[in-house]
Amino acid sequence: IEHFINNGKKIVSFFLLSLLTCISIFYIFTFIKHPQLGPFNIPNYYKQLNRYLGNKNNTTRILLLPPIQSGYSPFFGSDSNYYHGINYIPYVINYPFITLATELTQTGSLASKINRNIIQKKPICDYLKKLNISDILVLHDLNKNVQSLSSVDQSISNMKKMNEFTRYNLFKGANQNGIYLFEVDKNCIGNFVSLDNNKNNSVSYKIIDPVTIRANVHLRDYANLQLLTNFNNNWVVLVQKYNEEKINIVDQLLFKNILNTKHSKPLYTYANNWQLDKDFIFRSFGTEFYKLNPDGSIDIKFVLYYKSQSYQYFGLIIFSVFLILSASLLIIFNKSKK
Q1: Do 169 and 180 form a contact (C-beta atoms < 8 A)?
Q2: Fewest CB atoms within 10 Å of the CB: 18, 111, 220, 309?
Q3: Does the CA dihedral 174-175-176-180 come out positive or negative?
Q4: Beta strands at 263-264 and 271-276: parallel, antiparallel or unpaired
Q5: CA–CA separation, 335 vs 257, rounded Å?
Q6: 142-155 pLDDT, tens digit each
């Protein structure tokens, strides 16, 4: 019996060690082969730009110029797994991007009109409002081709003279090449979160992080809550208890109190949109979720959340728990042998 127990411990230890090794190999393989996580030599001034965007607190969407084609390869690093430097920028700068690469969509078409008007020195404010662009990022470091850089330099020169921008900044490296950030005048920027019927309704919002937005809504009549970012079914609206000042992390991770209403994209064929109806809210949620005013209107708090972020957290939690348990069991078995 003692021999069987000792052999059993060895078998369990071997099984746990093998399983942990397989999981570790899988994670290492994912980081090596997944193009979004591949190693890349990105200049430090991109990190400086990201810090600057975070400090100014009014960044909504960024338009990348010039047009980026798949054949472009930046001089600051070779391509990795057929992915070039432009593919890594969204993972260095944590804000939504628009490029001119997809002209078939209405968003790409509007962005192309912005680029065309810049070249022709025409106003672009109307297009900026429709796409809720707060900044235009001109990548001066993506191509060594003299002709392409000449076109980019002309656009930069034109933008410096346009009234739509409040200021610009140059983030550069030792070789003097870099990226220009043009900040759009606040009068040209639309609201990242808005209501289509704002005559008797109103909304204020705060961007907590790129995947979490808090919105306070005063609702008297029927309205649509609009989020001016690319449509994705992973965006959900959570209803927060009215007296709670902080977002409940557990409710957020478990998708509790979701506003189960129609999610569509009527705005410029790209934006997220949710229908808000007082009667639906009365039927679906208790009085602790809203404040009823004497005139019949309600005040309610929403959290707009990108739910895929929770899946990542769950994966990390499960992997961490399994790793700790496996390590603890191995330590216990080794001590029992002694």
Answers
A1: yes
A2: 18
A3: negative
A4: antiparallel
A5: 48
A6: 655 544 567 778 88
